[in-house]
Write a structure and sequence with these properties.
alpha/beta, Rossmann fold, 6-stranded mixed β-sheet, 3-stranded antiparallel β-sheet, 9 strands, globular
Length: 322
């Protein structure tokens, strides 16, 4: 026992040194920060996928809004040019995929439109085709994941975000809006927006937004970004500011106009031009930042770790039942 005492004392000496001095003397520069650059280069080579769904009645500017978001013609009309556009008798889902590249970063973008939603006299269960489509994408990913010999990269067709367009009535949310968001918020990230907000005055817009927030709270509807998934205090502060602005009052436009010597996207009216990217005119920049710039990866993470995980657990429990 006494022979081990000097050895124990020698082991205690390095732990008493200051951390900074020990790190400088023993380690120096290791190069761990190069991992971020490796991840960036690999992601730029392989690219990434982002799937977005737009839901709302006809004439609310869904296609125009998607084109404005990505500054490109990425949406597809329900009918060909020169043909009469007819409202489908049932909800029909149409998906179109594009590969967008910006500064060497490639993104495979899939936009899913839902023509026919809310356009009928009887809209009972009009959300069923949308729920079925979202679950089908989860099922497709699950089947690829449980294979014995899996692909190195499983194709991801899961819906990462659903933008729900609310008609600018200026009153309360309709029962259809409440029922849709109540059902869909449990399986996908729902982002509500007030469509064609330039038809409302600033006072009407603010009152309508407060009424929508009251409706969502009264019916316990959790839209994105959800409070339960805030990871730390910094995320909570950022998301609290976003939650105060939801639903975003947006305006879409695909035409440029001359304003003070600059070309801007906007809608021309008799009294002036509504600039889409001007925060004083509408909240489209906030929606764009949320979907593309600041929370795109978070949308994908919550889809994979929360919504898809709950679907996977439910399906595996069903398959294990006798």
């Amino acid at each position: 026992g006494s022979s081990l005492e000097p050895q124990e004392r020698s082991m205690e000496v390095p732990m008493e040194l200051p951390p900074e001095a020990g790190a400088q003397e023993l380690l120096g520069y290791v190069g761990i920060d190069a991992v971020l650059e490796q991840m960036k280069v690999k992601t730029m080579k392989t690219g990434f996928e982002f799937n977005i769904m737009v839901v709302g009645q006809s004439g609310l500017g869904k296609s125009t809004m998607v084109n404005t978001l990505f500054k490109s013609k990425v949406s597809r009309k329900a009918s060909q040019p020169g043909q009469e556009e007819r409202i489908p008798k049932t909800v029909q889902l149409q998906s179109v995929t594009h590969v967008i590249e910006e500064k060497g970063v490639k993104m495979k973008l899939t936009v899913t439109d839902t023509p026919g939603f809310g356009d009928q006299i009887n809209n009972d269960n009009c959300w069923e085709p949308i729920i079925t489509y979202i679950n089908e994408q989860y099922e497709r990913y699950l089947r690829e994941e449980i294979l014995i010999t899996r692909k190195r990269k499983i194709p991801d067709t899961r819906v990462h975000g659903c933008v729900y367009f609310i008609p600018p009535t200026g009153h309360w949310l309709r029962p259809l809006d409440l029922e849709f968001m109540r059902r869909l918020s449990k399986i996908v990230n729902v982002v509500p927006v007030i469509a064609k907000a330039d038809t409302l005055t600033l006072e009407e817009r603010e009152e309508f937004k407060q009424r929508i927030q009251q409706d969502l709270k009264a019916h316990a509807i959790s839209v994105y970004p959800q409070e339960d998934f805030d990871e730390d205090s910094d995320d909570r502060l950022l998301n609290d500011r976003i939650r105060e602005k939801i639903p975003f009052a947006v305006v879409g436009a695909d035409q440029e106009h001359q304003v003070n010597g600059k070309r801007v996207l906007g809608r021309k009216t008799k009294w002036g031009i509504v600039e889409v990217e001007n925060p004083a005119h509408c909240e489209f920049p906030m929606l764009r930042d949320l979907l593309i710039r600041s929370h795109l990866q978070d949308l994908k993470d919550i889809t994979h770790n929360v919504h898809y995980e709950s679907y996977r657990v439910r399906r595996l429990n069903e398959s294990n039942r006798p």
